[in-house]
Write a structure and sequence with these properties.
Length: 366
């Protein structure tokens, strides 16, 4: 067991050719490839449409229903110069503490660049004058609190009109820009709660047809919300992964979802998380006795080998970046050497990686 608990970042590295990084989604959501891995058995190569036949009656799937907003705003500073602001979350819901808003203005924590020209009181005009953002506070690390000269009711409508979809940096749209397909496909079919700056990508494969087959096979579906932030793209810099800290992301788990999870476990069913975002949220709201609780707050749990999972029995996820916190998480679930071998074979067999890539079902040994 000790051999599995590697703390050096390089131990989670693998070779990933550029051609394996998906730049566009599959022709159909549920036609992406699916690698099914249960315990130490030989991996099975399937399509995502096969998922209902791979799970068991009594299982419960938990998905993240966050909705990606067009969070990238391009503006001009007073006095000249371009500023880009990536909306992260409302400042009033900030992990840095509540921020008092003026009447008629809405405050958001943003990731701004360049930051060296910004200071408290500086004004940036976005969307050809549609809204103005005033710098209220510099938080460090590129984070800024902007107050916008518009109320909350009208803010999101304006953002929908002037904002750009914040595709991950490894999807190249420099030449042609965001496509119509991106606007549809970089969003799950069950997205409900607006607030994410990145999609919970394991959920991108689900279709109404797959949902119907799951329910027909006695597999229930429930949701939680975790608003995925830009930290999902932040690489691990520390050579010792124990020094890495996750950015906090806002979550909400309802009483109904918590009740379903606890009933499923009590009845001997399995809880299958869709994506690392759902996994981190579920493990955050479940106590050491395995009881899941409703609530909301900030999830910053970093799951690495040696972690004892409290609630999930399986994970549906995409293929991840080498040396990423997500690669570390799946190593904690399945074993590092096992996952490195799986990834090496997946690369060889032409599986597509990252947001628009293929999927895996990971079921560890009981």
């Amino acid at each position: 067991m000790n051999q599995e608990i590697e703390t050096e970042l390089e131990a989670y590295n693998f070779e990933l050719p550029q051609e394996n990084i998906a730049q566009f989604p599959a022709d159909r959501r549920d036609n992406s490839r699916l690698l099914f891995i249960e315990g130490k058995s030989v991996p099975e190569h399937k399509r995502f449409s096969d998922l209902p036949s791979l799970l068991k009656s009594g299982d419960l799937i938990i998905r993240n229903d966050t909705k990606v907003i067009p969070a990238r705003l391009i503006g001009k500073r007073s006095g000249g110069g371009k500023t880009e602001a990536l909306l992260m979350h409302p400042a009033a819901r900030s992990e840095d503490g509540d921020y008092t808003e003026e009447a008629g203005r809405v405050c958001w924590v943003c990731l701004a660049k360049p930051c060296n020209h910004l200071k408290a009181g500086k004004v940036v005009t976005f969307g050809d004058g549609s809204i103005e953002g005033r710098v209220e506070k510099m938080l460090g690390g590129g984070r800024v609190i902007f107050s916008f000269n518009i109320d909350q009711d009208n803010f999101m409508n304006t953002v929908d009109n002037i904002g750009e979809l914040p595709l991950p940096p490894y999807i190249d749209r420099e030449k042609d820009g965001i496509t119509i397909d991106d606007k549809e496909r970089y969003q799950t079919t069950f997205a409900r709660e607006a607030g994410a700056v990145a999609a919970p990508t394991a959920g991108l494969h689900f279709t109404p047809e797959v949902d119907q087959e799951l329910e027909k096979n006695g597999i229930r579906i429930a949701t939680l919300t975790l608003h995925v932030g830009p930290g999902t793209f932040r690489p691990i810099i520390a050579e010792d992964i124990r020094e890495h800290r996750m950015d906090g992301e806002y979550y909400e788990v309802t009483e109904d979802t918590a009740k379903l999870i606890n009933e499923t476990k009590a009845n001997g069913g399995r809880v299958i998380a869709v994506g690392t975002t759902s996994t981190r949220t579920l493990e955050t709201v479940t106590d050491d006795k395995g009881v899941t609780h409703a609530g909301n707050g900030w999830a910053d749990l970093f799951i690495r080998p040696g972690y004892k999972f409290k609630v999930i029995d399986g994970l549906i996820t995409n293929f991840h970046l080498p040396k990423s916190s997500l690669m570390v998480l799946v190593s904690a679930l399945m074993g590092r050497e096992r996952m490195l071998g799986v990834y090496k074979d997946a690369v060889k067999k032409g599986y597509r990686f990252y947001s628009y890539g293929d999927a895996m079902v990971l079921i560890p040994n009981p």
